[in-house]
Design brief:
- The complex is a heterodimer of chains A (597) and B (130).
- Chain A is α/β, with parallel strands linked by helices.
- Helices cover 39% and strands 15% of the residues of chain A.
- Chain B is elongated and about 60 Å long.
- The chains are: A alpha/beta (597), B alpha+beta (130).
């Protein structure tokens, strides 16, 4: 067959799919067919490009033209202008927010320049529903190499030497985990992929499964060979329908090609994978709870030891790894541990995928080498804070993590530095906040999340977190006292020390870390009954300036609760007891007479 | 579908798909020779499409790793078809009146060995970027 002259890659991740990327693909194909170009130009629906802020993305290869916010009706113009006449459609190109210039291709975009895509190497590059595209990009060559050239012990040594650590949060050395599981003997062992991604704002695992499902299947097979397991299970939350769909296709194709099943690569090694659906409970990301959930029991954690490597799924030795960890494995085998362990910092090797969210210009999914600084991530890749506001803090590690502030901007990011800074890597959520974010309210938000997600098995987590939340609620309502702050600190420390599993032990982190970094704000809420960010509604007062008010009655007529009184042409007054602080009056006032105090 | 039962099977399958992915894989790489063919109306009328296809075929036969893309009107309507070749780390050079023989010569001499050949259109403009 002839070579395609151009490849049009359309993002088929969840975000871009929601913005009609399937329609874009259909339209592109239809126009190309009309013009008789379907033999010359290939249109592919890929996984996530990471630049979700500006989706849907259409990228044209080989020139790397990067079109953003494409609509289905733009298909015709892209084909007629770019593909037929060779003229880029300027209005769809990415505009650099600082220079206000169009950037012609992705290699010149700040967002991509600092990235190093290892786990995401195929996301946004291949068609995830076509195993052949994965194979064309060295897919399944790593498992072939393991099965035909390495003994299981050599595979484990290679992973150990690479320095790969668990990407799900804890950062446990992957090679060591495999070694422990390999040394426990049993008639049946299991390999489990933890795809129960639950941190608010984190979506790297979903994107990998949607964009490159075969990399996880291949890595699990390698894992199975290394520890002597013939069965793999992927525990994935049912809220990820697209990831599940693509995994099902991938597993089916791998079986058809003989890459899962009996006698893989003609050896006597058998391996197959099944999917298990989770109902979306945060605690089920904890490996013992995850295993219980797979067994059909309640998703509650149990005390370790015994570790899953000793007694896991159905009481058999089980190795549990996260999706992103697995996505790194095939390329480590292919390029060698010594290639991988040169990337990153001394104790944290390789790259990490972060989900950038919050008050930042380039919201999306990025992969960067360990050791990069927050400043580089926020200002160079992330394009800085939205609306020209000031950076205040970034929350990492989700409900188990904490806040990093201005003083941490130049700290190299790795597992150990983040813990030293009072936060943690977690699965890689990064929520960027500016001066309009209240740190007490943020701590409350995460605690609400953990209270909701607590399984209720142990009292420190079930009762302790609830009490902490009540205190925080009082403080944000302006009913707190200094003693509350003391109690909050004590409770947090006790819960950390006494809770059963990782969820409980880390749930006070957002509170502790915000207290450490923003103590003044807590005191202000308690003593002055003030929220400097203007986020805690109860602490706000809407006031009409009598000197500016002309008595036009617009605010009074629009107030949904009739909290504003006053005669025509005389200054009006807001009754603070009735006011619900909805902000309608400020919006309606043409004289800027209403302000928040 | 024949099952993959050995490393050789996998390699054979990989090679058979290679063609399909090639344009994309090359575009993703850094440091390759960039060849742009001007494909505006006048370029196409003068045979740019034939030259594009010819270079695509021949580059593979000659074992040259190039990124071949099409571009709009370069403004050298008197010398169509025109192609622009950028060797890594060097300034782009534009060749005019490119026919199959000229394309061969450019590939064999300039792209392979950096040897200049006849037919270069001197640069008479400044670009706004960089």
């Amino acid at each position: 067959m002839a070579k395609y002259k151009m490849h049009v890659l359309v993002c088929g991740g969840t975000g871009c799919t929601a913005s009609h990327s399937h329609e874009i693909t259909d339209n592109l194909k239809a126009v190309l067919r009309d013009k008789g170009l379907e033999e010359d130009i290939q249109v592919i629906l890929t996984g996530c490009f990471g630049f979700c802020e500006k989706g849907p993305i259409v990228k044209i290869m080989p020139d790397n033209t990067f079109y953003t916010e494409v609509k289905p009706e733009d298909a015709k113009e892209i084909v007629e202008e770019h593909i037929i006449k060779g003229r880029k459609v300027t209005r769809l190109l990415y505009t650099d927010p600082e220079k206000k210039e169009h950037v012609s291709d992705s290699k010149h975009m700040g967002f991509y320049k600092k990235q190093l895509r290892i786990a995401l190497r195929n996301c946004g590059f291949i068609d995830p529903e076509n195993i052949e595209e994965y194979i064309a990009n060295d897919g399944y060559a790593a498992v072939a190499k393991c099965l035909t050239e390495y003994t299981p012990a050599q595979v484990i040594d290679e992973i150990k030497l690479s320095g790969l650590r668990g990407r799900g949060g804890g950062g446990f050395p992957t090679g060591m985990k495999w070694e422990i599981a390999s040394k426990n003997h049993a008639d049946q062992k299991y390999v489990v992929c933890n795809a129960d991604e639950g941190d608010p704002g984190a979506f790297m695992d979903r994107s990998i499964l949607e964009g490159d499902p075969h990399s996880v299947i291949e890595a699990m097979t390698i894992n199975g060979y290394a520890i002597g397991a013939t069965k793999g299970l992927i525990y994935i939350r049912a809220e990820y329908p697209l990831a599940i769909h693509r995994l099902q296709i991938a597993i089916k194709q791998a079986r058809e090609y003989g890459l899962l099943g009996k006698n893989i690569f003609g050896t006597d090694f058998d391996f197959d994978i099944e999917l298990r659906y989770g109902a979306g409970a945060f605690v089920c990301g904890e490996e013992t709870a995850l295993i219980h959930s797979m067994e059909g029991k309640r998703g509650e954690p149990t005390f370790k030891p015994p570790f899953p490597a000793q007694s896991g799924y159905l009481q058999k030795p089980t190795n549990v790894n996260n999706v992103e960890t697995y996505a790194n494995v095939p390329i480590i085998i292919l390029k060698g541990a010594n290639w991988f362990n040169k990337i990153g910092t001394e104790k944290s090797k390789g790259t990490k995928v972060f989900a950038l969210a919050g008050q930042i210009n380039n919201v999306g999914l990025i992969e960067v080498p360990m050791g990069i600084t927050l400043r580089e991530i926020i200002y160079e890749i992330g394009g800085g804070i939205k609306n020209g506001r000031q950076f205040k803090a970034v929350q990492t590690g989700g409900p188990s993590g904490g806040c990093l502030t201005e003083k941490h901007l130049d700290t190299p990011i790795d597992y150990d530095n983040l813990i030293a800074a009072g936060s943690m890597m977690g699965s890689g959520g990064m929520v960027v906040m500016d001066e309009t974010s209240c740190m007490v309210a943020i701590a409350k938000f995460y605690l609400e999340f953990t209270c909701e997600e607590s399984c209720g098995k142990c009292s420190p987590c079930r009762i302790g977190n609830k009490r902490m939340l009540e205190i925080l609620e009082r403080i944000t309502k302006g009913q707190g006292c200094m003693e509350d702050l003391e109690n909050l600190k004590n409770l947090a420390t006790v819960i950390k020390d006494t809770a059963l599993c990782g969820l409980g032990q880390t749930s006070p982190n957002p509170v502790l870390s915000t207290m450490n970094n923003f103590w003044d704000e807590y005191v202000e809420h308690v003593k002055d009954k003030k929220c400097r960010a203007g986020a805690c509604k109860s602490l706000m007062q809407y006031v009409i300036d009598p000197n500016l008010c002309v008595g036009c009655t617009s605010c009074a007529r629009n107030c949904p609760v009739n909290a504003i009184q006053g005669e025509k042409k005389t200054p009006h007054v807001i009754n603070a007891e009735i006011c619900i602080k909805c902000g309608t009056c400020i919006e309606k006032c043409k004289f800027n007479a209403i302000s928040i105090k | 579908m024949a099952q993959i039962k050995s490393l050789a099977d996998l390699k054979a399958l990989k090679n058979s798909i290679h063609e399909k992915m090639d344009t994309r894989v090359k575009g993703n790489k850094d440091g390759l020779v960039q060849v742009k063919v001007a494909m505006a109306t006048c370029g196409i009328a003068a045979g740019a499409k034939t030259i594009f296809n010819y270079i695509m075929e021949q580059a593979d036969k000659k074992g040259l790793e190039i990124v071949l893309s099409q571009t709009g009107c370069m403004g050298y309507c008197h010398a169509e078809p025109t192609i622009e070749v950028t060797l890594p780390g060097k300034e782009p050079i534009v060749f005019g009146h490119v026919d199959k023989a000229k394309a061969d010569e450019i590939m064999d001499k300039y792209i392979k060995n950096g040897e200049l050949v006849e037919g270069i259109i001197p640069v008479n403009y400044n670009t706004i970027d960089k």
